[in-house]
Write a structure and sequence with these properties.
By secondary structure, this protein is an all-alpha fold. Helices cover about 80% and strands about 0% of the residues.
Length: about 450
């Protein structure tokens, strides 16, 4: 009888952490997608003297900042804590959006987008860590999948900000909206608990145990010694290149490169490319809403499909369907049919990349699984930098019609590579391989 109140308190705390992280990731998604949503306005008005080539560069600045933020997040959070890092990331990308709103020229705007990217890249892995710490037992994948829907909800919100705010007030107003998350900081500061795994790693076991007792939360396994942890990470990294493993590792990295090139290229240029195909601006922005609704559905169904058919197979098939959908967007179709294609492309595109991570996780041994997934994600982020730049270069050189085709080729590229890697690893059973589930990270 006495355990019931404790479990109830633990459930309430888990819900609180998930809700707080969900809103933080919502703002992350809003800030990430807002540039693509307002870009047609900026190009039409020649804001800041912006050209198509410069627009692609600016899109890459944010994703380059995300690369830096994602790579630095683990080290920084190990020093200052997950809670402080989350507060810092929200502060950074909100203030950086204010800098974009005030920017007198392209250089200052680019600096703002780069700084915003650093905050955006650091927030998501931090939020996933916090949610994982407090998720109910056996519900970790589900809660992380729910968390990831916030990123696409932010993309939907960005389209409505562009529709409702930019037209009457101008493009700068959209970036002022992205400063609003600063008002959320006091809520995070007051209610967000520190990560239990961080407290244990820092030797603050009494504090972690007290939090666990008060809220009925299960303590994670204690972290090992710092030097041993570093040594283990280096050993796990070397294992990715032992013997002929380097071939498999390279295939995963290149597939992730193509996947994130596709994800961030389409996210940045979808409204602009759709306008180039002859659609009105309102319809072009509505495509962003439909695309991200598809992303939410895809995140919720991809894990189930992988459980039944296998993550490697689903990843390859999903990329093939994504490539077909993206290519079809280069064809002017009836509006209703276009919406269907955009929705389905959103379903397959976002979860196709997620299935690469799931494939790497399944094919890796338990001792180097985290390293393998982390480095696959990190190397893939170079594709996230390249995708927006590629779209800008195509438009700047008068080849905008090739935009969707180029991104479709990236989908075929990833499909082939993840297919080959799966065939090479099909006969190598891995002890302790986890149940195939959604791995939520971009």
């Amino acid at each position: 009888m006495s355990s019931s109140p404790s479990l109830s308190r633990g459930s309430r705390l888990a819900v609180l952490v998930v809700v707080l992280c969900w809103f933080a990731v919502l703002f992350d998604g809003l800030d990430m997608f807002i540039y693509g949503s307002v870009l047609p306005h900026m190009l039409e008005e020649h804001a800041l003297g912006l050209t198509s080539g410069q627009a692609g560069d600016l899109g890459s600045y944010a994703t380059f900042g995300m690369l830096i933020g994602a790579l630095a997040a683990g080290t920084v959070s190990d020093r200052i804590g997950r809670r402080k890092l989350m507060l810092s990331c929200v502060t950074l990308f909100s203030l950086a959006s204010g800098l974009c709103a005030l920017a007198p020229n392209v250089m200052v705007f680019g600096l703002g987008r780069t700084l915003a990217g650093v905050g955006l890249g650091g927030l998501l892995p931090t939020a996933i860590t916090l949610v994982s710490d407090y998720a109910p037992r056996g519900r970790g994948a589900l809660t992380i999948g729910m968390l990831m829907t916030a990123h696409h909800a932010g993309g939907i919100l960005s389209a409505y900000v562009a529709l409702w705010v930019v037209e009457p007030l101008g493009w700068r107003a959209a970036f002022w909206v992205c400063v609003v998350p600063l008002l959320f900081l006091p809520v995070l500061f007051r209610f967000m608990p520190e990560s239990l795994s961080f407290l244990l790693a820092k030797g603050r076991a009494d504090e972690a145990a007290d939090l666990s007792r008060r809220y009925g939360v299960e303590l994670p396994a204690a972290a090992g010694a710092g030097r041993q942890a570093v040594a283990d990470r280096w050993n796990a990294l070397r294992a990715l290149f032992d013997g002929r493993e380097w071939i498999q590792t390279l295939l995963y990295w290149l597939a992730s490169f193509g996947g994130l090139l596709l994800v961030y290229g389409v996210a940045t240029w979808l409204p602009t490319l759709m306008r180039g195909e002859g659609y009105e601006l309102g319809s072009a922005l509505t495509f962003v809403v439909v695309f991200n609704l598809g992303g939410i559905v895809g995140m919720l169904v991809a894990g189930r499909a992988a459980d039944r058919f296998g993550a490697p197979r689903i990843s390859a098939v999903w990329f093939a369907l994504t490539a077909a959908g993206v290519f079809l967007l280069s064809v002017h179709m009836p509006l209703a049919l276009t919406f269907v294609v955009v929705f389905l492309t959103g379903v397959f595109l976002n979860s196709a990349q997620v299935m690469i991570y799931a494939t790497v996780s399944i094919r890796s041994s338990p001792e180097n699984r985290a390293t393998a997934v982390g480095w696959t994600s990190g190397m893939g982020r170079f594709g996230a930098v390249f995708g927006p730049w590629l779209g800008g270069q195509l438009l700047a050189n008068g080849n905008g019609d090739w935009g969707f085709t180029a991104f479709a080729i990236a989908g075929v590229f990833s499909m082939v590579l993840i297919g080959i890697s799966s065939l090479r690893g099909a006969n190598r059973p891995v002890e302790g391989a986890p149940r195939q589930e959604l791995t939520a990270t971009h």
